[in-house]
Design brief:
Blueprint lengths: L16 H17 L4 H8 L3 H13 L3 E5 L12 E5 L1 H5 L5 H50 L7 H11 L4 E6 L2 E6 L5 H4 L4 H14 L4 E4 L8 E6 L3 E3 L6 E3 L12 H8 L18
Antiparallel strand pairs: 1-2, 3-4, 4-6, 5-6, 7-8
Helix pairs in contact: 1-3, 2-3, 5-6, 5-8
């Protein structure tokens, strides 16, 4: 679901304001009418084809427009007609209603299947993310094994890098009781605010990838500035040089064994768990 507002494409960096407005109009025409030649665009804009080509060159350089040979173009004397079309990046710059569509779909699922059905959808949605991040973590563990017995792997740091590549802008840091994984962006925050099953499924993925019980302390969906996940010290061997948590490959915590964070839970009056935790505490971002 996309709208056709023609003023959503931001101008290329360094472009004058008037150039930016014209390029907005070019992008809007390509969205509304589909692929067109420079001559067709010039006629609609009321400017010369040469001027249009200059703007198209800027949009092509920015990755928002692609140039291709017009279908059925006859090769003869002179340059064959070329069509210009929006790329996926060009389309994504326009307003969209993906969040509204996702909310509508999940509300329908919740109404007809209940909370468990929503949870199943969330887990399915995150399955691909989990697989890609797992590959990154496993590759780091394998590389450390090849380097020798003394090599260690900071799983939280590897996971943070993998999540950043997925658009989460994640970082990992060491604290006295273990480590923290922070996600500075949430692609589904608007939807997760109504359906916390998305956050719960994401927490379970993090727990599986670091190999231990974790505790979600804050979420963007709940109004916090950052999604913060605590990783207990049981997994971590803190380096004396302050390099951060050096985590070794570990198995999930066996049932009945309390983790460091669970001892923290007891001191706070919270119940303990031996499965991936989705508890959260409001903390300053």
């Amino acid at each position: 679901m996309e709208t056709t507002t023609a003023h959503a494409v931001p101008p290329a960096a360094g472009a004058p304001a008037e150039d930016g407005r014209t390029r907005d109009r070019v992008g809007g025409l390509l969205l509304e009418h589909g692929p067109q030649t420079a001559t067709e665009l010039a006629a609609r804009l009321g400017i010369s084809p040469a001027a249009v080509r200059r703007h198209l060159d800027g949009l092509v350089a920015a990755g928002r427009v692609t140039e291709r040979e017009a279908p059925g173009a006859q090769r003869g004397r002179g340059r064959p007609a070329r069509h210009f079309a929006l790329t996926d990046a060009g389309r994504s710059a326009f307003p969209h209603a993906y969040d509204d569509l996702a909310l509508t779909a999940l509300r329908f699922v919740a109404e007809h299947g209940g909370p468990d059905a929503v949870r199943a959808v969330a887990e399915q949605q995150l399955a691909g993310l989990a697989e890609r991040c797992s590959t990154a973590v496993d590759s780091a563990v394998e590389l450390a094994a090849q380097e020798g017995a003394g090599a260690t792997v900071d799983r939280a740091q590897v996971l943070a890098a993998a999540l950043t590549a997925e658009g989460y802008a994640a970082t990992a840091s060491a604290i006295s009781s273990g480590g923290q994984l922070c996600q500075h962006h949430c692609p589904v925050a608007h939807v997760a605010a109504e359906f916390p099953q998305l956050c719960e499924a994401e927490t379970a993925v993090i727990s599986k990838l670091v190999g231990t019980h974790v505790q979600r302390l804050a979420t963007i969906a709940h109004g916090d500035g950052i999604c913060t996940t605590h990783i207990p010290a049981q997994l971590a061997l803190r380096a004396g040089n302050g390099a951060g948590n050096k985590a070794i490959p570990a198995r999930p915590v066996p049932a009945g064994r309390a983790t460091a964070s669970e001892h923290l839970d007891r001191s706070a009056g919270a119940s303990t768990r031996t499965t991936p935790s989705i508890d959260r505490e409001r903390t300053p971002a």
